[in-house]
Amino acid sequence: MKIACVGGGPGGLYFSILMKRQDPSHEITVYERNPAGSTYGWGVTYWAGLLDKLRAGDPESADAISEASVRWTDGVAIVRDERTVHRGDEGFGIGRRRMLGLLAERAEALGVRIEFEHGISDETCPELADADLVVAADGVNSVLREAHTGHFGTEVTTGRNHYIWLGTTKVFDSFSFAFKETEHGWIWCYAYGFSGERSTCVVECSPETWRGLGLDAMSEADTLNQLEKTFADLLDGHALIGRAQADDAAQWLTFRTLTNRTWHRGNLVLLGDAAHTTHYSIGAGTTLALEDALALAAALKDVGGGLGGELDSALNRYGRRRRAELLSVQSAARYSAQWYENLPRYMTLDPVQMFALLGQRHSPLLPHIPPQLYYRLDRAAGQLEPLRRLKRWLGPRLARTLHSRTRA
Fold first, then answer.
1. Who's near 216: CB < 8 A, 6+ residues apart?
2. Paired residues of 259 in beta bridges
3. With 70 as the cut, is the pLDDT of residue 28 above it?
4. Best exposed site among 48, 58, 176, 360 by fewest CB in 10 Å?
5. Alpha-carbon distance 112 to 27, whole Å?
6. What's the whole-model pTM score?
């Protein structure tokens, strides 16, 4: 097959690796609009289960990613000025630039051609004209998907809160949170290490707090200065690092959740953020893109040289499988985003209780039960098997009911 992959993010690069491993005769080109080594974002988070899947797909790149990653097990939260610690599962962090470099190196070693600084403006570009398969891995603003939003059934919902993606010279050895109350409301931060020199720091707040603190009108330099003061106890005097020039406006965003009813059109197929997004608070974006790549490569494994109907069937299988697998993740992301959008509901709790409910924010039951009561029921469920079974039974059913109502 002749394959054109538009977008050189983790999903697109890993897909090219998998396809070359399946059949070295595939002619694969990755078109990336940015220069080599240039990327947005700071660090990527993932959990051990992803490494197992990556090792099954390509042990060499999985081992390289594992060796370049940092690890943590504890979660730490500072609520106002009180610090609490929660023991959790092992998590991993790796710099996005480092991950992309490792995947690009592996892809090129297998014979994939990577064209940096080579953007694709639309599907009529000559680079795509004779491709048997075109993979749109060009992100949430995919130009290939946007040309056919009606066919794909694209839907986008915008979150309420504002957030900004920053780096810091403070190296965190645990996944850390800080919640600070101001005269204009709460502002909070998620922070995690991704190398021995840097960490990611995501700051979020409601639009009322954002405007009340004047963050809507500040330059990036003034924003960083104010946030360093706000989160001084978390940062221990370390600097925050932005993406723009110091005199530019700070790059605050609102999160866009994107879904598509179908994931392919002819020989064009969506992958990663071009197909779906999930709120950053569950840390799954890169993992899901890599899992898309695994599923797409698996679906294409038995497609013969004649393509045609075989390719269409394979792309249908891929889309159906991934949309089904994403349902629980998308539900968790939706409830996680809503938890933060309703943060004041939980901030009257004792910090230890609040941190416990932070870990339960994916639950469809939590928004409908008073937080103090939910905390007590959750502690009781930890001791009583009948309550655990009831919680496992009731949660998914409530989630399906509420989701169907919101889509009606």
1. 210, 252
2. 155
3. yes
4. 48
5. 7
6. 0.91
